[in-house]
Design goal:
heterodimer; A: alpha+beta; 3 domains; five-stranded mixed β-sheet; three-stranded mixed β-sheet; 22 helices; 10 strands; B: alpha/beta; Rossmann fold; six-stranded mixed β-sheet; three-stranded antiparallel β-sheet; 12 strands; about 35% helix
């Protein structure tokens, strides 16, 4: 449904303010929906249509239940597309709608300008619809259960992508120089005039063929460990055409959603910064202030022991703005340890606004936290690291040192909180088996789920699959052959071998 | 318009249903009890229905929080920056569970005895009143009445539409009683609680009773359940006592049958009720004479007035299992008597099939 005249007026006004502040966004289309429709769109990941899959239905059930019991309610929903689509819930009050509209313009600006979104398909709405058509067609041709089962398998692996792949040219597709090998051991040594007798053309051709075959056998696949497991499967797994089609479609969608997980704190912080800025300075009427303050503080509420990404994001943006306005950066600021001077430190540079626009363009959560979180900010925001006390089993405040806080935060944010997994060998044990390696960073992977995932992977690969990881401090090789999963302890030497190998790449 | 999501949703439900069905035997024989949610819903934990992924386990011991407290103080709450692990629980209407049970065991639908003349009052909200609780206020009618009154009084300005209902404008929903034909059934559970019936035997009865109730509930609009325990004497008890009481002493089955017959006569005349007496014991009885008395009671007072009489014999280390043999000998061809032997938990489904498979 289109916006009511009231809302349309509000939207136009807010859009005008947003542009005046320098926000730069795709045209944004708002739709007014009731909660059923909103939950429907939300369970489709924000899109009006997706391919048929039961997990959307499961998500819908969950959202409906949450809504019915008053546990959760979706306030805003916006998708990265050109034009952006955003949804407003019919039953919200006008103040809420204004808040959401301003918030949405913040997100739209972020989608358009943040570099991590640069590679995303801005026609994703159309593409998702196409994916729906493709899958439905395949289901007609190959049967619903077959396609659905295959889709399940692909989806179980959809976090095995390389979120940085679009920015890096990590793969070198050029084959190693083969000419160099020509002069190699295939040719017998002979004096010039004897050469064509010692090394006749046929002999040379045979030798070369042998060499190429030999090389094929010993050549590692992949050349170097690759994180884009889905791509590796696409290129090397024995898939039928339609299966490859499904897998590449799942991979495509995974890459589309990846930057949203990489920039959650920034994206929400940026949108909150702008809704608060626009609402309090331009949009609000006197009568609306209290309601706005109520809902704004509700969004940014922190409870002890919890971390709210909206809150962390907005405060960090505000902190950056203040620091760059006052020139609190660089050598002079860092070296100033006089408390009073520090407190009154203000060079009146007025660079804050420019700086935060730059930050929203170039950073993602990891670099954002790494660069800008400092001790002053930690103190002001009362951030701490907690640890479980092994004696009582209860969490306790462990430290308020910003380095530890930062370390802990970054740990949770790197790779969007997912285990880092590489394909290391596509011909494991020279038996055509697939070997993955989990880069252990202190957290074990969940074995129950991993077991199920391995079974799916084995079917895709068509041969047994393995994953190297650590359990209880010991390196293990978890293998899945014919649906049976077994765990074998790796000898320490084998493990160090692997480590050396991966560091040399 | 049918929502696009409905297709995915019904597919999800199909999957859940399929899972419950394939796991039904496990649920029944392991005596897995489900959480009840209100009157008609139960929630069933279904692990592994969600898509698996490689992800971190729940072995996280630290994280970042925000708030007061010195190092060493307890930090409230749990990890804030990552979702914890949870098991998916699905809610299934009891009726659906019954349907699954029916399909799995191929139970025929029960044809209630021809007693549609039985009527019961049914209240439905179809009326309107001028008084009532605010929670039942009919907003549309109230506003209409206010509009009408304001127009008549000339207090309505179409340029600035504003309706202010007063006391007299308010309308409320109200219910009217209608008589509707109804089929009611009563289940009378009788159980031997003498010393020879152990904990395991009672557990078997409890699980079996749950599934029998689930099925019968799906067949009748209203189902009443009564419980009788007996050793040498019988008495009526509530559900909790029924399943947990442990007495010692002898066994006189006729005492329970007498009480049951009296209950049926006084409270559940067969002209109105579909009556299902179920009796569970380990097959020991005080004496042959008492067994004769039981048969007499069955023939004269119980069988003529019930849909079917079911006797389930739970195998125990002490029971002789004689009673079932006696019953089978006395009523070899009588369709109104069903006996079934339940060796252990795995036998529960089979005996449910025995009892309910006749469609009575």
């Amino acid at each position: 449904m289109n916006l009511t005249p009231d809302l349309e007026r509000a939207r136009q006004e807010i859009e005008k303010h947003a542009r005046a502040y320098g926000l730069d966004f795709f045209p944004t289309i708002f739709e007014l929906v009731d909660h059923d429709e909103l939950n429907e769109v939300a369970s489709f990941g924000g899109f009006p249509t997706r391919y048929p899959h039961w997990r959307f239905g499961m998500e819908f059930d969950r959202l409906q239940k949450g809504y019915r019991y008053g546990l959760s309610k979706i306030y805003e929903l916006v998708i990265n597309n050109d034009p952006c689509y955003a949804y407003l819930m019919k039953s919200n009050s006008l103040v809420d709608q204004k808040l959401v509209i301003s918030h949405v313009y913040g997100h739209c600006d972020f989608f358009k300008n943040n570099v991590y979104f640069a590679h995303t398909d801005r026609r994703m709405v159309d593409r998702m619809a196409n994916h729906g058509t493709i899958i439905r067609k395949l289901m007609e041709r190959h049967g619903v259960p077959e396609v659905e089962t295959f889709l399940d398998r692909c989806l179980a692996l959809d976090n095995l992508i390389d979120p940085h792949a679009s920015a890096l040219r990590r793969r070198t597709d050029a084959k190693p120089d083969e000419d160099a090998a020509d002069e190699g051991p295939g040719r017998m040594r002979a004096k010039g005039y004897m050469d064509r007798h010692v090394n006749p053309a046929r002999f040379l051709a045979d030798q070369k063929k042998k060499q190429v075959e030999q090389k094929k056998k010993t050549e590692r696949l992949p050349h170097q460990p690759t994180r884009d497991v889905l791509r590796f499967l696409l290129e090397h797994a024995p898939l039928k055409r339609w299966q490859a089609e499904v897998l590449s479609l799942v991979r495509e969608e995974a890459y589309y959603f990846a930057p949203q997980a990489q920039t959650k704190i920034m994206n929400e912080g940026w949108a909150s910064y702008w809704h608060s800025m626009m609402m309090t300075r331009r949009v609000l009427k006197d009568s609306e202030v209290i309601d706005f303050a109520d809902h704004h503080s509700g969004t940014l509420a922190t409870s002890p022991g919890r971390l709210n990404p909206y809150k962390l994001g907005i405060e960090l943006f505000r902190d950056i703005e203040e620091r760059w306005n006052k020139g609190r950066f660089g050598k002079e600021w860092e070296e100033c340890d006089h408390l009073d001077t520090r407190r009154r430190f203000d060079k009146k540079l007025g660079l804050g606004r420019d700086r935060i626009f730059e930050v929203r363009r170039l950073y993602c959560d990891v670099t954002f936290i790494d660069t800008f979180l400092n001790q002053d900010f930690c103190d002001a925001q009362k951030l701490y690291v907690y640890k479980t006390n092994p004696r009582t089993g209860r969490p306790e405040v462990a430290s308020r040192d910003h380095r530890l806080v930062k370390e802990q935060l970054l740990f949770g944010l790197s790779n969007s909180g997912q285990p880092r997994i590489h394909v290391v060998d596509g011909n494991f044990g020279n038996r055509g088996e697939l070997c993955l390696a989990h880069q252990f960073e202190g957290l074990e992977i969940d074995m129950r789920l991993a077991t199920e995932t391995m079974k799916h992977l084995e079917v895709l690969w068509g041969r047994p699959v393995h994953i190297e990881t650590k359990l209880d401090g010991k390196g293990v090789l978890v293998s899945c052959a014919k649906g049976e999963v077994s765990t074998k302890e790796l000898s320490p030497s084998g493990e160090t071998d692997r480590k050396e190998e991966s560091t040399t790449h | 318009m049918i929502r696009r999501i409905e297709r995915d949703r019904s597919r999800f439900r199909d999957i859940v249903r399929g899972r419950i069905k394939s796991d039904l035997r496990k649920f029944v024989s392991q005596g897995e009890m489900f959480g009840r949610k209100g009157k008609d819903l139960i929630s069933i934990p279904l692990p592994g229905i969600e898509l698996p992924h490689f992800r971190f386990g729940d072995n996280k011991k630290q994280g970042v929080g925000q708030g007061e407290g010195e190092p060493g103080d307890g930090a409230e709450g749990k990890a804030g920056d990552q979702p914890g692990e949870h098991m998916l629980e699905v809610e299934v209407p009891l009726a659906e569970l019954a349907e699954i049970l029916g399909e799995e065991l191929q139970l025929p639908r029960i044809q209630p005895k021809g007693r549609s003349e039985l009527v019961a009052p049914v209240g439905r909200y179809i009326g309107i009143r001028r008084t009532g609780p605010e929670s039942l206020r009919h907003a549309k009618r109230t506003l209409k009445a206010a509009l009408r009154r304001q127009i008549i009084a000339g207090a309505f300005d179409p340029e600035d539409p504003c309706l202010i209902p007063i006391r007299g404008d308010r309308h409320y929903r109200s219910w009217k009683v209608k008589n509707a034909p109804e089929n009611s059934a009563v289940v009378v559970y009788m159980m031997d609680v003498s010393g020879s019936m152990g904990k395991e035997q009672k557990e078997v009865v409890r699980v079996e009773a749950f599934w029998i109730n689930t099925w019968l509930r799906s067949q009748y609009k209203s189902l009443q359940i009564r419980y009788i325990v007996h050793d040498a004497a019988a008495r009526e008890v509530d559900e909790n006592t029924f399943f947990h009481l442990r007495e010692s002493g002898g066994t006189k089955i006729s005492s329970a049958y007498e009480l049951c017959a009296r209950l049926m006569q006084e409270q559940f005349p067969s002209s109105i009720w579909n009556v299902y007496p179920f009796h569970f014991s380990d097959g020991d009885n005080w004496s042959g004479r008492d067994t004769e008395r039981c048969v007499e009671l069955l023939e004269q007072s119980i069988l003529p007035h019930c849909n079917v009489f079911c006797y389930g014999q739970v195998r125990s280390a002490y029971g002789s299992g004689q009673f079932k043999k006696d019953l089978d000998a006395k009523f070899p061809k009588d369709e109104r008597v069903i006996t079934s032997e339940i060796p252990d938990r795995d036998g529960i489904l089979k005996s449910i099939q025995d009892f309910l498979g006749k469609g009575k």
